[in-house]
Amino acid sequence: MRIGIVASEATPFSKTGGLADVSGSLFKVFNKLGNETYLFLPYYKETRSKINDVNKGSKISIKIGGKNIEGRILSKEISKGMNIILIEQNGYFDRENLYGTKEGDYTDNAERFGFFNLAVIESIKLLNLNLDILHLNDWQTGLIPLFLKENDMRIKTLFTIHNLAYQGNFQKGILELLQIDEKYFNIDGIEFYNNLSFLKTGIVYSDFISTVSPTYAKEILTEEFGERLDGILKARKDKLVGILNGIDYKIWNPEKDKNIYKNYSIESLDLKKENKFYLGQKLVLDFHQDPPLFGMVSRLATQKGVDILVEALKDLSKKEEIRVVILGTGEKNLEEGLKALEEEYKSKIRVIIGFDEPLSHNIYAASDFFLMPSKYEPCGLGQIISLKYGTIPVVKETGGLKDTIDNFNDYTQCGNGFSFDEYSSEALANTIKRAFKVYNDRTKFNNLRKVAMNCDFSWENSGKKYLELFKKMMR
Ligand code: ADP
Q: Per-residue b/e over 354-371, b at no fewer than 16 CB within 10 Å?
């Protein structure tokens, strides 16, 4: 098959979160399973240093709000059958960040990603790509199925929702800017409470819809998780599937990871501890009595359960000998809340604000437990990465966390992590205490680690599921 993947970020070219890991991995996996693969991305400032020798490209000119906006389509075959296609438009994409600053989203995101969607259509035509499938990801690609229809281009589309809460809703005026016919602006079409919704457009006009775990695929049909789109999703229920994300074990492998202090494997688990001492030295945390280390690497968004975490840690840090290291960046109030907590418990808690890939690897390797108390979680990668590093996840039972983590049962000794059902600081604190107890029983804890490290969430399986779906779509 000839498959195009369109995303607003993909590793190693650009990344703010899990979407990048997923699209970057699928790019490789589809190709490995015998398909010609094309990855479409905006050419951001941060992408420039990550790829060289792109060709000079073809010029394009796209009408935005009555003006012709010039750009270029750059391409490169990075290995056999793996082609990257970069949409260059410096005014839109040569900026410090992908989507916005601390102060908020870039105010012209509708225009930027509207341009990106139109440029993808242009590239497919210009380069004669002859694609069988277009795999679209999240709201930043949501207008593409509509533009394909308008251009009478019959490529089958799968629209994958990585997070239903990010919808790309903009004022109606954007229709004119992007020259979208008013006839689509109705409740069965692209309108969403008087706004144009990129996400809803993707849901309505694509051939199939998927999301990133089977549980989240069910949850989004309910009012609680449906983000006001449960109605339209229910109407398209027979075209909605859930395919679990995987991780790339070439990148995430404690045996080979070049970012960590000491490599280790299931056979040399004792060495894992050296990573903890190393991190302790680096962050000035005392691990003398070998207290358990709880790590967290996360976007700091309300979704991620930071509010209950702060409450739970306030209580626990008073009474227990625990250590906590949190790496994250995001909403200002959450960053401040965590920093204040660190200030209060300086000898126990470290909070590092920022996006730091090497440090994230060190935290996965050094920690005994990984905290992911998300209110909702479409799939989640942190818990899957942690399992591979023998770092036991502590999660709320929701979405992909539910599909990947089995609560440890002290009696049967089955399970690969610790989980709780009710979204509250008490439930989280009790679960951390349970984890603490198992940590103190070294035989039990080591067995649990081995079970975790043996879990397999590689992309092969999920990649095959996507390909089966593509074949079905083409039939
Ligand atoms: P989401 O996509 O909602 O952000 P996921 O768990 O699916 O959450 O994926 C998050 C990915 O981003 C993981 O690979 C995680 O390690 C990485 N990540 C998140 N925050 C940071 C950070 N501050 N520094 C480095 N990596 C981060």
A: eeeeebbbbbbbbbbbbb
